[in-house]
Every structure is written in C-alpha cells, then in structure tokens.
Amino acid sequence: MIKRLQHYWAITVFTLFFLPLTINLGLWQLDRADQKILLQQSLTALEQPIMVPDDQGLILAELQSLQRVTLNSSFIKPFVWFKDNQVVSGKVGYDAIGLIGAGDNLLLVNRGWFASNGQRDPLPEIDWVNGKVSLTGRLVPVQVNPYQLGEDTYSDQYPQLVQEISPAVLTEHLAASIEGTLLPWVLILDTPGDATLTPHWKASAMASEKHMAYAWQWFGLALTLCLLYIYRVFYSPIDTKR
C-alpha cells in the first residue's frame, strides 16, 4: 500500500487539497439555505402590515426589520433621489426615493423603479405625489452598495442622482434645511397606490432550494473525487513505465 501511495503521490496531494474544499463548499451552501429558510419565515411572520397612526412615527423605530407597515403621510418637497443602475426585466432605470414625515421623524420611501431611457443630463421627471397618501411596504435597513464607484455628492438641486443612500451622510445634508431624525429604514413600497411605481425589491436573489442544489453538487463532486481516488490508487494497475 505504501508503495502505491508513493507512486500516486501527486494524485494524493490533489485529493487531500480538493476534497476538504468541496465538502466545505457544500456545507457553506447548506448554511446559506438555512439562512434563506429563516429569512422566508421572517418575511411570512411579518407579512401582515401594521397600521402606524399619523402622529406615532416613533413606533417605526421600534419595529422589526422587514416588517410591513401602512401609514398615511405626505412627501416633503423638493426631496427626491434617483438611485442609479437599477435593472428590472433587463432594462436599466432608477429607483425613485422620496422623504416623508412620520411624527417627529423622517423616513425615506422607495417608490419603486422606472425606466431611465438613457436620460441622465438632465434627469427625467416623474409625477410628484401631492397631498397625504396611503403607503404600504416593508421597512428595510439601508444597505451599503458594494459596487459604488465613488462617493455621492449631495446638493440642493433635485432630483439628485445617487449610487446609494447613506443615512449618516444624508442626515448631515438634511440638517440644514429640515428638522427631524432620519430613521435607519427605507420604506420600500410593494402595494399599488398613487405613489407606487414598479416594485422590484426582493429579500434575496436566490431561493433556499437553489442553495440546496448547489450543496448536493459539491457533495457529489466530493464523492466522485473519493471514488476516483480509491479506484486509481488501490485498484488500477501501476504503470511501471513511468
């Protein structure tokens, strides 16, 4: 046996390197599948929208992430930001993000997507929603854009084109013109209404079933590697000409 292991040392090294790698990748995909299952369970549990009274904006700060809520409020002029590089059904466009008052707080509202049609200078115009409207959606924590090419520069000209929404930077920018605490949420509208454009937000781009399928692919590759190694090292004839 030692002679065969010495003869196939290169195959042994290859197997010892890639076998743990494929197993760990399979376990990682299983872990990701569990995370997606828990996320889906959370979405289901928080599906029923909570009605937030007009003067109870403080309630929003106490709610769980991904909770659906319904509230009535008015968009504050002239604040509107277009989030760049949003792709829906293969088309590039913007997400329109406005600002509303919620009691003594301020809340960002993602109205959804609209096609840019390549227009950037000047930016396209969208219809302003006047008066108090009913808004229903999920409270989603603001997430950093990992692909941001550079820092956004906020100005007093609206609409503004941005790559991401940064609550810390935006709070500093808004402090000079409006009072109120900016909540760390974005209310992403998911129900048709006067303010809703094209909803497209998803909690995850990949379902748990796909992670499971990837996991079994990695485990299958690990099993195949083991079987090939066992056959090659212990059962195949040794090539004495090497």
Could you describe the 3D structure shown?
The protein has 242 residues and is α/β, with parallel strands linked by helices. The protein contains five helices and eight strands, in the order ααβαββββββαβα. It has two domains: 2-42 and 207-235; 67-189, no CATH class. An eight-stranded mixed β-sheet has the order 1-2-6-8-5-4-3-7. Strand 4 (91-102) and strand 5 (105-115) form a beta hairpin. Helix 2 packs antiparallel against helix 5. The model has no long low-confidence stretch (mean pLDDT 83).
Distance between the termini: 18 Å
Sheet having the most strands: 8 strands, mixed
Seen as an oligomer or otherwise, the chain set is: single chain
What is the C-alpha radius of gyration, as a whole number of Å?
A: 26 Å
Which regions are unreliable across 5 or more consecutive residues at pLDDT < 50? none
* Average pLDDT metric: 83
Number of domains: 2
Number of strands: 8
- Across the major sheet, the strand order is 1-2-6-8-5-4-3-7
Helix content class: 25-40%
| Structural class determined from secondary elements | alpha/beta
What is the helix tally?
5
Please provide the ordered H/E string of secondary-structure elements. Answer: HHEHEEEEEEHEH
Q: What percentage of amino acids are in beta strands?
A: 25-35%
Cα shape: elongated
